[in-house]
Amino acid sequence: MDFKKLMSAQISKSRPVANGENTSSKYLRRAELEAERQARYVEDQQRLAAEKEERLSKKRKLDEEEAEQNAQRELKLQRLAAESKARREAKELEEEQARRRRLGLPPLPENGAEDPSAVPEGFEDVPDDELRLKLRGLHQPASVFAETHSARLHRYYKLVKKEVSRPQLSKGPIPSTLEPVAERDMLIPDSVPAKDKIDDVKFLYRQLASYFTLLLTEWSIMLSQRDEAIQASASGRAAYASYKIVLSDLTPMYRRMESNTIEADLIPPLFIVLCVYFPKLRYAIFEGDRRYGITEDSEDAQTVSAGTESKVQ
Description:
About 65% of the residues lie in helices and about 0% in strands. The chain is mostly helical and about 325 residues long. The longest helix has about 70 residues, at about 30-105. The protein starts with a helix and ends with a helix. This is Pre-mRNA processing factor 4 (PRP4)-like domain-containing protein. One of its GO terms (biological process) is generation of catalytic spliceosome for second transesterification step.
């Protein structure tokens, strides 16, 4: 054995061996180095993720605490505002009551107190004496302790289950309570209705409303069926403006006919309007007839045509 080998053996014995180091090999495999690097990388990423999650958790906790403090502060402000408003309203009410006492006026009802003269929504008012008689007629007490007129009225309608019937509006360009007549009833009468015949005058109003509704409906359909270019043009806008003007001009007449407040001297001119404009309505009426399957050769169309020609002549 030579000196070189002896020295190598002694040096290898004196050098400390690292953990996991393979002393039998002088070289390390690249796969082992890559595996060690991957393990260190995964460990670092897990540590960073844990630190990030901890920071986010602390931030969420701080945000929740701040939101809770803001909510408590907002509730406190609302409570203080409500108390301040209540004190201000109480002070104003006290001053108003003092002023009314000084002037000899009746005191105002307290807040939340029911107005004795108020009528429940959806019911028609009945005089108190008449209401008491009606309750007695139903074998019910005319009044109970601390019952106001509104509560008594509500109790009466609850007993009889009677609600106010609201008039139904017709569907048309001008909604009206005038009931439209059928096309077979659109014949002009032989003479102008007399002033004292209320039913005939009302029927004439219904005829007028039906005629104008038919005209306006056909007019609106004609305007809506135009091309968009024509509608956007100056003539199209002028036609639509004329239509709106006619609607606004005829609405007061509808309201007068509904309330039957048209002067008696205006009934003959209205009758003339029917005679003059009815031939122009024939086209619109027969167009509507054809839509519903009634032709000019049918019995209804011939009846309307014969009646119209006789009145126009």
